[in-house]
Amino acid sequence: LDNLYSSRIAVRKDTCAMVAISLNIQQKVHPIIWSVSNLPFDCTQAIPVKKPLGGTLVVAINSLIYLNQSVPPYGVSVNSIAEISTSFPLKQTSFFLQFCGKAPHPTAKDMTIGTA
Fold first, then answer.
1. Res 19: pLDDT
2. Beta strand spans in the chain (E)
3. What domain of life does the UniProt record list for this protein's source (predicted)?
């Protein structure tokens, strides 16, 4: 993964990727379950989403993206900079993000996301 600074987004902006694999330690086989490439360069964290929904919430500086093998990727912008910082299709919608808990690094169980 190349380092990318915000001053270089005109040249190359969507440099992150997410790959979900199955680990089979006994048989030493690790097949790819699903993958998504061309995620925004400013992705910082992947938070697992528990069942029954499952999947992963990708946290970026300018967006939130939900990834799951069963549905197409879904992303929302969290500010107006997202429009120019990525080519990833993001919804422009009103939503809220609520953190419940005092952990320094929130997990999916500490968050509530909904439409406003």
1. 94
2. 16-21, 32-39, 43-48, 56-60, 63-68, 71-77, 95-99, 111-115
3. Eukaryota
Across the strands, what pairs with 58? 46, 65
- d(CA 40, CA 82) in angstroms, rounded, equals 9
Q: For 84, which DSSP code?
A: H
Task: Look at residues 83, 97, 86, 78 and name the one whose alpha carbon lies nearest to residue 42.
Answer: 86
pLDDT on residue 1: 38
Can you list the alpha helix ranges (DSSP code H) found in the chain?
A: 82-85
Burial of 56 (0-12, 13-18, 19+ CB in 10 A): buried
102 beta partners? none
Where are the chain's structural domains?
A: 6-115
What's the pLDDT tens digit per position in 39-93? 999 999 999 988 888 899 999 999 999 999 999 999 998 888 888 888 898 887 6
Put simply, whether the predicted model's pTM sits higher than 0.90 gets the answer no
